[in-house]
Design a protein that fits this description.
By secondary structure, the protein is an alpha/beta fold. The C terminus is likely disordered. The chain is 50% helix and 11% strand. The protein starts with 5 loop residues before the first helix and ends with a helix. Helix 2 packs across helix 3 and helix 9 packs across helix 10. The protein binds a DNA duplex (22 and 22 nucleotides) through helix 15, strand 7 and strand 8.
DNA sequence: CCTCCACCGGAAAGCCGGGTCA
DNA sequence: TGACCCGGCTTTCCGGTGGAGG
């Protein structure tokens, strides 16, 4: 065929996405479907900011992908817009505490944003605090500080929250109010009661989206993200249904849609179908597991590897004891320290919690009570991930032979 | 109905690296 | 700087247990 005009080829390839960034979580859309109630609630709490009063602090809860961050950013943007028109000094500063995760960094970052020159390390904390106070108080303004993933901050002590929550009493001209966002309801328990009561003057809960709501969200984004007609009908409801089954996680739904599109694109398909979505689900699961396995501690990796060894010798179910015997012999072969069975048992339950393996405690009557372990993961992928670790390089030498010699006969 | 297997899983103490404070 | 503390990981010890087989 001579239809090999290079531009035509590229154009064809481009035919799926109009703008794929719309499907990323960093994107804040023009309007947020099904969050009217929360938007209005936040807006009415922040309203006093426009008339020079201090808005109440807000604590926001909700699982991942329920639109907390997007909503807050959205309302914040609108507030800044109006205040500019009204000639009021009112600013919203957003911090993600997963990245900025210590008292010092929070204060320093804020001070920097407000135009102070504070080094990111080195100063005593209270000096930074004073600088920050100074920066805030230099004119009549309202500063709203958004602390996303605030639970991450609390784990390392709640001094910042304590300081920030009473900063108002030390200011003459300016006002500060806080918005904390968390997906962990339990984090309140770790908080000093005084901080908690000041922080949670208002509480707003973001419920998970249901399938129909997710569908609306996806439709809205898909219109911007995809060229017309590339989505097979049923793709969006399918993605929505899958995500709704989990936690009503919009982030997941969007990921699903984007990855489906990417898969279709990479195969030069013109239309995204349900099949692509199914493929995307598989890919996401696989990526998730690979990631989890990569970050596993060494001992857990070796335990998992022992299970894979058993699996490859044809076994589909195994007990703690069997895994332990194989594990011990592998430890000896590669000269790793051998943990006790008690500990290994704990590590096995950890693997179970992570969803890498499936285990249940069953009783086999006379033959004891034990955990029955099953692997339902892409074994060869996981195996490669483990062997990729340089510390397990030497395991490759035993490939295929590890069970025939010493360990297998142990449980004959 | 009792036994007894092969492990479960709680409690507590030890070890270790890192951080804090006088 | 050394005494001390903290939290995570691991070991030790041990009581507990569902159900096949007698």
């Amino acid at each position: 065929m001579i239809d090999s005009n290079i531009f035509e080829k590229i154009l064809k390839k481009r035919s799926i996405f109009k703008n794929r960034d719309v499907l990323r979580h960093s994107y804040t859309p023009e309007y947020l479907p099904h969050r009217k109630e929360q938007i209005e609630a936040i807006a009415s709490i922040l309203l006093p900011a426009l008339s020079g009063e201090t808005p109440s602090n807000i604590l926001i809860y909700g699982k991942t992908g329920t639109g907390k961050t997007a909503t807050v950013k959205f309302v914040g943007k609108q507030l800044e817009e109006v205040s500019r028109k009204m000639n009021v000094h009112c600013y919203v500063h957003y911090l993600n505490c997963e990245i900025i995760d210590t008292q010092y960094r929070v204060l320093a970052t804020l001070a920097k944003v407000l135009g102070k020159n504070v080094p990111m390390t080195g100063w005593p904390t209270d000096q930074v605090y004073d600088e920050l106070k100074d920066a805030i108080d230099k004119r009549n303004q309202t500063i709203i500080i958004v602390l996303d993933e605030i639970d991450k901050l609390v784990r390392k002590g709640d001094d910042v929250l304590y300081n920030l929550s009473r900063i108002n009493s030390e200011l003459k001209n300016a006002r500060v109010s806080l918005i904390g966002i968390s997906n962990d309801l339990k984090f309140k328990n770790f908080l000093d009661p005084r901080v908690l009561s000041s922080l949670s003057e208002e509480e707003i809960i973001f419920p998970p989206y249901n399938a129909t709501q997710l569908e609306d969200i996806l439709n809205q984004r898909a219109e911007l993200a995809f060229h017309e007609g590339v989505l097979d009908e049923g793709v969006i409801p399918y993605c929505a249904a899958l995500a709704a089954q989990e936690h009503g996680d919009a982030r997941k739904a969007l990921d699903l849609l984007r990855i489906s599109g990417e898969i279709a694109e990479s195969r030069d398909d013109r239309v995204v179908t349900k099949e692509h979505v199914k493929e995307a689900v598989r890919k996401m699961e696989c990526d998730h597991i690979t990631e989890a396995v990569k970050t596993l501690p060494n001992q857990s990796k070796l335990i998992l590897y022992s299970m894979i060894a058993l699996y490859e010798s044809g076994r589909r179910k195994f007990t703690t004891g069997e895994v332990y015997t194989v594990y011990k012999s592998l430890c000896r072969k590669i000269g790793m320290e051998i943990l006790t069975q008690r500990r290994v048992s704990d590590l096995i339950s950890e693997l179970d919690m992570l969803g890498i393996i499936n285990s249940i405690v069953i009783s086999k009557g006379r033959y004891g009570r034990t955990r029955e372990i099953k692997l339902d993961i892409p074994v060869d992928v996981v195996k490669e991930v483990i062997l990729d670790d340089y510390r397990f390089e030497m395991l490759r030498r035993y490939e295929g032979g590890y069970l025939t010699n010493s360990s297998l006969e142990l449980f004959e």
